[in-house]
Amino acid sequence: MALFSSLTPVFIAIICVLIGVIMKKSGEKEKRDTKSKHPSRLWVDEDLKDGTDHPLEEEEGEEEWQGLEENVAHVLFTGERYSEAEMIERSQTFYELLNKRRSVRFLSDEPVPREVIDNVIRTAGTSPSGAHTEPWTFVVVQDPYLKHKIREIVEEEEEINYKKRMGDRWVNDLKRLRTNWIKEYLDTAPYLILIFKQVYGRLPNGKKKTHYYNEISVSIACGILLAALQNAGLYTVTSTPLNCGPQLRVLLQRPANEKLLLLLPVGYPRKDATVPALTRKPLEDIMVVM
Amino acid sequence: MALFSSLTPVFIAIICVLIGVIMKKSGEKEKRDTKSKHPSRLWVDEDLKDGTDHPLEEEEGEEEWQGLEENVAHVLFTGERYSEAEMIERSQTFYELLNKRRSVRFLSDEPVPREVIDNVIRTAGTSPSGAHTEPWTFVVVQDPYLKHKIREIVEEEEEINYKKRMGDRWVNDLKRLRTNWIKEYLDTAPYLILIFKQVYGRLPNGKKKTHYYNEISVSIACGILLAALQNAGLYTVTSTPLNCGPQLRVLLQRPANEKLLLLLPVGYPRKDATVPALTRKPLEDIMVVM
Hints:
Chain A is of the alpha+beta class. Helices cover about 40% and strands about 15% of the residues of chain A. Chain A has a domain at about 90-275: NADH Oxidase (3-Layer(aba) Sandwich), CATH 3.40.109.10. The first copy, chain A, has 9 helices and 8 strands. The longest helix of chain A is centred in the N-terminal third of the chain and has 26 residues, at about 10-35.
């Protein structure tokens, strides 16, 4: 990365402005050319919209995620190279590490070193993203009052979900199985990581900047985050707080272009933590070789 | 996992049928209760639809991804536990490994051990998924003829994209920068991994089974796949073949419930491979602590 140091911030700013001008021109042309050819297509999940949304006009994405990156210098690249035996061994060891991961919803209140949280989020930030827009914000909540407010919002919505959406029979069945709308881990976990996708950005001239494939990009970053947590010996449960996004966004003072994608409580498993006795599909059920 | 062996396939089948009955009943109730309350919401990206789609009726997802898992036995869980110093060191080392990852589109034709490919896909399969539906299919293409057919399909669409969608000025600018619709890596990479999301599944009784949050789930699995590739010393470029999904699905004989999400060519960087001189956002630009 030493080669990159010649790219001073000023140079980068000039490039950004140039990209903005080029995109604007081509965007105008594109609108004329294709407006009627492409039927309506949504970039943003409807369920993550809220009243303050400013939906972008529909735009086509880049096929390759490096589209905008083409406007900067190119440098030679040589990656790590291992022997074949090393590759097999490394891939096997990594599989065994990640195969021990389970979603854990019984988390203790033991403190976790903040440096580890910084490192796992740094790691998530190495993810690729559409046109290198890096459209993610990781909000780490450690304040007990805020955690409790989040719990109140999530539980209130979840109670409505359970009472309105599920039939009596299902709710009764779930009672026996100890599942309900109570999310104790939102209080006990030392950290809650709320991951927001930035559905658009801002160009230096203040205009909106398309964040191509932002939901896929941020989800990929979350996959890398889950791998980093497992590698560090930390546990979580992947949750998508249905209908809570707008309230949580306002609580956490995130701008309107950010939509909540996932909420990950992070900590150590409680001594009495349990997980469902599930198995995973074998390789032959998920892979096809041609 | 030894504890799980008591769950014989027969037992699992019985549970599945029970889940099916419960879901059907609650689904019927849900429809009556909420039909008018929730405005239209799309689960499936419009751009990945094709003429053979059988869209599911709209359904609400589970908030926690383990919803359906509640119907199986629960077992005590104790994860790996490292000292704080170890956690910090492990998280730092993993960050440094993944921070070396770059999207590489100049891939050599050197063969890669198949066992490594198996292991990285096994690793991706450890990803969490909405209600443990594991809604992914990884199609690994090594046959030169098929790879070339894929290249033809992708390049044809991409040429249309370039000629129709981009303004003359943008195309001219890109010419200087060596970007066009030619994707040589689709021929040269020893493996192409095409990742399909299963937008719905089948219950034992043949009825459609909702795959909650299938796009997010499969994207998370791809994040874990990218981490596994980097760990093994393999390189790729994350691509979303716009408008090619239906043709590639038919070419690879995938069923109509599967939609192409990503295409990853996998191999070693060519000796003369270059990458754009990009930097990543610093931690303070992607993380907010409260």
